[in-house]
Design brief:
By secondary structure, the protein is α+β, with helices and mostly antiparallel strands. It has helices spanning about 1-15, 20-75, 380-385, 410-420, 440-445, and strands at about 80-85, 90-95, 100-105, 120-125, 130-135, 135, 170-175, 180-185, 190-195, 220-225, 230-235, 235-240, 255-265, 270-275, 275-280, 285-290, 305-310, 315, 320, 350-355, 355-365, 365-375. The protein folds into 2 domains: about 50-240, no CATH class; about 250-445, no CATH class. The protein has 5 helices and 22 strands. Strands 13, 14, 15, 16, 17, 20, 21 and 22 form an 8-stranded mixed sheet that branches. Strands 1-2-3 form a 3-stranded antiparallel sheet. The longest helix has about 55 residues, at about 20-75. It starts with a helix and ends in a 6-residue tail after the last helix.
């Protein structure tokens, strides 16, 4: 542009000082205009290609984040509550049962070669999922495939839960100055060029000036059944079970005595909950939830007896995680869940909790079921401790194991040692003694100020 104005200035000077060939000057002006337009066109093409690179990179990394989130949700038994189309029609947003959201975007449709398809593919005996780019496995510098998640792949699994496995990797992609893909496996600290199975760089962009048919946009579609939502992303299907949003709970409402009123089983065959069934009086059962201020040491009762459970609990989001619990499904007698056989209720969910009602959902190897409980009366500390120090047979306190050689009675710390040694653990076969060792906070609530 500066050169163009310089020529105009020169022409003006020549016209004033002497005769010139005007046609020749105008030809020179036209040539400069053409050269300037070609430069502008080249700049426009460069900006267009830069925009394509930015969009491709953004889409690739968005797909990686979405796929990782979907697979993690499946492995953690997180269900989908709802989904909606984005305001700009560029994709969908999924709302999950744990309160998280996952954004899915449609692919780009550009010139031939200007496309990217991020996906995952199972490989090996354990069907572990690995990252793919345009259908080929992504490899690290040593030629190893890059895992999406743990040992067990979860794509297409509508309910079963696999082991946690190894931690997966979320790669980051970018396009280098040569138009080829580069990948980082350490959050952008180091980069390496992506190679195909023949060892050649993988191009993200078509050659400059290349013509031909438009590149196909990677697919994204969502279909659903009454029980599941199927997401098809870049040719891969992910089947996610439907669920309900879990409302925020007030953990303090959980503390206290709860009595089981009725239960409800889930049918895997038809994917529906059965009718609520009343608990027979003979199989009375319930829970006594505690915290550190009033005791939380797990205790156990003989199989078949009416049960009140005390156990440690941790509320993480809306999940109630139980450290240890013995449970008997009364009328059905399905199972006894204890720490010893490796049964952990890490999928217990609070469905409803208010001042008077509690609904718990269990997801276990014995199937899914729910219990409806109503609030009961918490025994006072003395009667509570005394109840579980009464002999398993008869109506008297156990005394022959509660003495020691110095003070005639156990202090708290000696009691802990005896309990850990197994001397105070009830006989699982229905022996005579059944003990509950109170926490020191419980004992101090009975005898205020007692430090021993």
């Amino acid at each position: 542009m500066k050169k163009f104005f310089a020529i105009i200035t020169l022409i003006s000077m020549i016209i004033f000082v002497g005769c010139v060939d005007v046609d020749e000057l105008w030809n020179e002006i036209d040539s400069l205009k053409k050269e300037n337009q070609e430069q502008a066109d080249e700049l426009g093409k460069y900006k267009e290609r830069l925009k394509i690179v930015e969009d491709l990179t953004s889409l690739a990394n968005s797909d990686i984040a979405a796929i990782k989130a979907i697979v993690d949700a499946l492995n953690k038994n997180v269900s989908i509550v709802s989904y909606k189309e984005l305001a700009d029609k560029s994709g969908y947003q999924l709302t999950m049962s744990d309160g998280s959201t996952i954004t899915l975007r449609h692919g780009l449709k550009g010139d031939k070669g200007d496309r990217v398809v991020i996906g995952s593919k199972a490989f090996g005996k354990e069907n572990r999922l690995y990252w793919t780019l345009d259908g080929e496995f992504l490899l690290d510098a040593d030629g190893n495939k890059i895992p999406v998640t743990g040992d067990k792949g979860a794509r297409g699994d509508s309910g079963s839960r696999g082991p946690t496995g190894f931690t997966g990797i979320s790669p980051i992609l970018r396009v280098n100055e040569n138009g080829n893909w580069e990948v980082s496996y350490d959050y952008g600290k180091g980069w390496q060029e992506v190679k195909d199975k023949s060892g050649n760089p993988v191009s993200a962009l078509g050659s400059q000036g290349e013509s031909g048919e438009d590149g196909a946009a990677p697919s994204l579609s969502i279909t659903e059944t009454p029980q599941t939502v199927t997401i098809t992303l870049n040719g891969d299907e992910y089947v996610i079970p439907k669920g309900n949003a879990i409302s925020q709970i007030d953990p303090s409402l959980l503390i206290g005595q709860w009595n089981v009123l009725k239960y409800q089983d889930y049918s895997d065959e038809n994917g529906q909950w059965g009718d609520w069934e009343e608990i027979e009086a003979i199989f009375n059962a319930g829970y006594h939830f505690m915290d550190d201020s009033n005791g939380s040491y797990p205790y156990f009762t003989n199989f078949g007896l009416p049960m009140n459970h005390a156990f440690d609990y941790v509320v993480t989001g809306d999940k109630l995680l139980i450290s240890e619990l013995e449970w008997n499904h009364g009328a059905v007698g399905k199972a006894v869940m204890t720490k010893s056989p490796g049964y952990y209720l890490d999928t217990l969910t609070i469905i409803q909790l208010d001042d008077e009602n509690l609904i718990l959902e269990y997801n276990s190897k014995y199937g899914r079921f729910r219990e409806h409980l109503t609030r009961g009366v918490v025994p006072n500390p003395l009667s509570f401790v005394a109840e579980y120090n009464i002999a398993g047979q008869g109506h008297y306190f156990v005394d022959d194991l509660t003495y020691n050689h110095i003070s005639d009675y156990y202090n708290y710390y000696i009691g802990v040692m005896e309990y850990k040694s197994g001397h105070m653990i009830p006989d699982g076969a229905g022996g005579a003694y059944c003990y509950y060792l109170p926490r020191i906070e419980e004992w101090q609530s009975i005898v205020p100020g007692n430090k021993d």
